[in-house]
Design goal:
It is a single chain. With 186 residues, this protein is α+β, with helices and mostly antiparallel strands. 23% of the residues lie in helices and 31% in strands. It has helices spanning 27-40, 132-145, 156-170, and strands at residues 5-6, 45-47, 57-61, 76-87, 91-98, 101-111, 113-119, 125-131, 180-181. It is globular and about 45 Å long.
Length: 186
């Protein structure tokens, strides 16, 4: 089932998520829905807060980037109860976008290497190191689990330059090719 993606300004996107228990109801259905929602929006990653949940779950599929980075071929994973425990000292700056912040792309610095502990879709534990584009995408989605968005990493001047666009998104004045959930202030 394709779920609506919550847009910038919605409070759930600023909440720190919580680990889930091993008896989480319908986990497989949720993961399938997350992948389907991500594919429908032409994304390569999606975190639970982007669909309104405060759970520590993210999914990625980097197959579309295998031409750019051959190691991305077939890289489709769910990260449950993910915790980055180490970041490399070297940073790389690349342009990023986000399904929750449509039509905005900015250059963001990120560590070029991470070590992450997580459970897979079968709740099996992993402790893995990722570099390059994999590390970047995982960090972007991981930030959502911490209530952080990619625009939080850009300079104050750049943020001022896109403030009007961010305000339009927050006011619900944005069109997307995918299902969205606007935040209506009460």
């Amino acid at each position: 089932m394709i779920l609506p993606i919550y847009l910038y300004g919605h409070p759930v996107l600023r909440k720190v998520t919580k680990d889930i228990s091993s008896d989480y109801p319908d986990l497989k259905i949720l993961l399938d829905n997350m992948f389907e929602t991500m594919y429908n929006a032409d994304g390569v990653g999606l975190a639970a807060p982007q669909i309104g949940l405060e759970d520590r779950i993210l999914v990625v599929d980097l197959s579309p980037y295998e031409e750019y980075d051959p190691s991305c071929a077939g890289f489709k994973k769910a990260f449950i109860n993910a915790h980055i425990i180490e970041r490399g000292e070297e940073e790389e700056i690349m342009e990023e976008g986000c399904l929750s912040i449509p039509h905005i792309h900015e250059k963001v610095p990120r560590s070029n290497r991470i070590r992450i502990q997580y459970l897979d879709e079968n709740l099996q534990p992993h402790d893995e190191v990722y570099e390059g584009y994999k590390a970047r995408v995982i960090q972007h989605e991981y930030d959502h689990l911490e209530g952080i968005m990619f625009v939080d990493h850009i300079s104050g001047i750049r943020k001022q330059l896109i403030r009007a666009k961010l305000n339009k998104i927050m006011s619900g004045n944005v069109n997307c090719s995918y299902k969205i959930k606007r935040h209506v202030k009460k």
